[in-house]
Every structure is written in C-alpha cells, then in structure tokens.
Design goal:
With about 140 residues, the chain is mostly helical. It is about 80% helix and about 0% strand. Helix 1 runs antiparallel to helix 4 and helix 3 packs antiparallel against helix 4.
C-alpha cells in the first residue's frame, strides 16, 4: 500500500494539513475567541482532533519511509516532525494536567501556553520542510 509514493504522500499531506488547521483553530479559540462562550470547548476539541490527525499522518509517514527502505529521520522534515510530535504530546499532556490540577494551576497554564506556542512553530517548520522536500516550496 505504501510503496506507491505518488499516491500515498498526498494522503499524508492532507492529514497533516488538516492537523495544522485544527491546531491553528485550537490556538485561535484561546486567543481571539477567549471571551466567547464555548471557546474553551472548541480549543479542547480542536486540539484532540489535531492530535488524532497527526497520529494518522504519522502512521502514513512511517509506512512510506518503511516502503522506501530508507532510514527514518534522514531529512529535515522527519527531524522536525519527530520534534513536533514530542512537543505536541507535551502540550496536550500539559493541558490535561492543567485542567485537572488543584494547585499551581497558574504556573502550569503558563507552561502549557509556552509549550503550545513552541509546538505551533515546530508544526509550521515541519510543514515548510515537507513542502520543500517534495519540491513545492523553494
């Protein structure tokens, strides 16, 4: 299934592009939509959706690399992708811990916000590196 790179990479791109849009929706919900009713629910829903799409895109990416016979993390896109997954997981875990914490909630929220900002930056860098790798950018 993954051996036909020309047919599989668009699936990866669509999954990851959708994950980026969900991530940006989550970020929008807590920044611009902060005063609107339901914005925190939208933030959580969009963040979980981004994580699920990211996981599906990762499965496709691993399958493509396995089918090509090449080593993992040999290109900048793969390295940025691995960092993005780790930082994204830390962001989600931090958000979950923050909502359930009884003490130190303000400090935990600050950490969650900054790790989330780093995740957005790495997500966008990963997209740019991927577009460069397939020849769409630069």
């Amino acid at each position: 299934m993954f051996a036909d790179y020309a047919r599989v990479w668009p699936v990866h791109a669509i999954l990851m592009g959708s994950a980026v849009l969900s991530l940006l929706t989550a970020a929008w919900a807590v920044t611009l939509g902060r005063r609107r009713k339901g914005s925190f629910h939208l933030h959580k829903t969009a963040a979980v959706t981004a994580f699920v799409l990211l996981a599906a895109g990762l499965v496709v990416a691993i399958g493509m690399v396995q089918a090509s016979g090449g080593p993992h993390l040999r290109v900048l896109h793969g390295v940025f992708g691995a960092i993005t997954i780790v930082v994204g997981f830390l962001t989600g875990a931090g958000g979950l811990i923050t909502t359930r914490a009884r003490s130190h909630r303000k400090q935990l929220r600050t950490i969650h916000l900054w790790v989330g900002r780093v995740a957005v930056i790495f997500f966008l860098l990963t997209v740019l590196a991927g577009l460069r790798q397939v020849g769409i950018l630069f």
